[in-house]
Amino acid sequence: MRPFVTLIERLDQCRGTGERLEALVTYFGVADPADAAWALQVLLAKRRRRLITGRRLRQICLEGSPLPEWLWEACYAHVGDSAETIALLWPGDGALASEPPTSSAAALPLHQWMEQLLPAAVALDGDAQAQAVRGLWQGLDPPQLLVANKLLTGGLRVGVAQGLVVRALARLSGLEETLLQHRLMGEFTASAASWNALLAAAEEGQAVASRPYPFFLASPLELDAGAGQPLPDAASAWLAEWKWDGIRGQLIHRAGEAYLWSRGEELIGESFPELIRAAASLPGGSVLDGEILVWPRDAAQPAAFAQLQRRLGRRGPGQQLLRQCPAVFMAYDLLEQGGVDIRSWPLHQRRAALCDLLTATRETPDSSAAGILQLSPQLPLERWTDLEPLRQQASSAGAEGLMLKALDSPYRSGRRRGQWWKHKRDPYTLDAVLLYAQAGSGRRANLFTDYTFALWNGDGELVTFAKAYSGLDDGEILELDRWIRSHTLERFGPVRAVQPLQVFELAFEGLQASGRHKSGIAVRFPRISRWRRDKPAAEADTLAAAMALLEGGRPATAEERP
User: Fold this and answer.
1) Alpha carbon 239 to its chain's center
2) Does the predicted TM-score (pTM) go above 0.85?
3) What 3-state DSSP class applies to 110?
4) Pairing, β 510-513 against β 521-524
5) Residue 405 is a catalytic residue
6) Which end of the chain is more exposed for a tag (fewer CB within 10 A), N or C?
7) What sign does the CA torsion over 162, 167, 173, 174 have?
8) Of 150, 243, 405, 424, which is the active-site residue?
9) Whose CA is closest to 149, among 87, 62, 101?
10) pLDDT tens-digit map of 64-97
11) Taking the chain, what is the end-to-end CA distance rounded to the nearest angstrom?
């Protein structure tokens, strides 16, 4: 495992992309195929599950050494991570441990750790498990111990983008990056055979019928008020369509089988059997990119995202749920036609082919696609002055905003700026009072960075409404941390209740009714948009104002808010 630990250390110390690329190429260039496959799976977080909890590791550490619990807690409070705390506190020579030193397992290859050592240790129970884990720790230096524990908890986050790993593999193999990205989509079982198949010459690479293509992602378009021409070329050179509030997916019909993939590279066809039946109506060798939505048959717009959530993770949903939350696939791109990859075609040509395909499919006798496979409509955008009025209509259409795509753009992979943009509607905002704070984790483990906010109810009481963790800059976090420490009213374990004095404007994407929350409302994607130092807590917003938004009120603009 030593070469892999060296790679992780080097990646952590690299200052630029070029250095990281060289580190990856160097490692993969000499690694055993089985080790390389496991390293790739770990770096790309390819469905690596947690084998053991951080709490259990803490228990194993404390039971196997004379470390006092207060020392552990003090160190953990500063570091914020169990695996790193153990790496810093555990005696590497075994002198203070209950188990005698053994020969270090660090010399064993990575694939043996992943396939044998770690699974065998965690498969045991109680003391036997603890002894096995501590046995693996013996003889490991702190960097090796940190990586070993991160592999146990499934929490190894290297901060290397998939695109950079693919670039390294492309340099190593001489293959095109797009081919490697395609081969890495979907399932990847770490093995020497999988590694060799990944890097096989293009003509030798065996096609997998279920495999999706890498998704092309849009970049956020943020415009100043009164912006003239926001993008190059005339407005007529761009396709405008709604940014639907659903789940991105690819619908595939190949080799007589249908598949539905999420953007998270998960097969989710079992949750949406009607979409699988509709896909079977498509000609063989068809791959559609689009959005999964819940859309009642007679409704003018899709249902709220909360209705779609009811379908997620359900294997074989019952007839009642299928009736209450009927799914549609809103298609907006065609990636494969007749088994031919057409991603290099310009968008206007792919869209024309998609339109013809859907029309022909719906007209097929006994087709299951009618009303289920839909074409995302093209919105009228003749001049740039039409853009903002169109965006303001997104809420009434049940959308998050607009998508803008260059009509001559190919279908690329990942987030490439310049050709696909998302222009979301203004977020909802409410002014809320800070009630509770909790320390963060990692590099912010010694700072209060996790906040709970409240709104006023009709009885003049503050009711918790949302939690937020982002939106403040480093200077504001430090200032607020000092304020929290000096204005703490009570402590509940790691949580501090503070004087209800500070007001923050929270931005969020939507609201939904919830019986699990004290406020009766669940908030979607809350974040702090600004610190309202100018506003006393008594003037913060109310639950009634939140309910008004829930019932269809539009969010106030920045100019309208006090």
Assistant:
1) 27
2) no
3) helix
4) antiparallel
5) no
6) C
7) positive
8) 243
9) 87
10) 888 888 888 888 877 777 888 888 888 754 434 4
11) 59
